[in-house]
Write a structure and sequence with these properties.
This protein is mainly α. The chain is built from 5 helices and 4 strands; from the N terminus they run E-E-H-H-H-E-E-H-H. It has a two-stranded antiparallel ribbon. A two-stranded antiparallel sheet has the order 3-4. Helix 2 packs across helix 5. The longest helix is centred in the last third of the chain and has 27 residues. The two termini are about 40 Å apart.
Length: about 150
Amino acid sequence: MKILMSKTLSGQLKPCYDSDAELLKKIKAGDDVEIEIKRPRNLAFHRKTFSLFNLVLDNQEHYKNLEELRKDLTIEAGYFTKRYNMHGVEIIEAQSISFAAMNQDTFDEYYQRLLDAICNNYGMLKSDIEENLINYFRSEERRVGKECRSRWS
């Protein structure tokens, strides 16, 4: 049984949805339960990260492909695995940043190290990146919104 809970100002956990409250009712008073605390990934933060990748892609000349840039920056940020191919050659592969592969705490750390990798490789300041990213993110949201509205009409 998986239930999404939200912490209230009083410090108590309450079910986020009526369906979650119904599931909680199935647990009898005095029953022992095991709870694993996980923060679900923040979709808006995930989108912000991809806006960051797009911002870097648009402001450099080496990469023409977003996925290649994402993989190389992920490796630069220290999120990679090493393996050896059948010829004994070491292969370094970027870790997945999918929702299934990283929890929110790990993703928060990844984002900070990603910013460090961008600053180190492109000579930018974090404050400048964040300032430009806010404007870039908003313009991307407007562009996507226009595309969606045009499809609906």
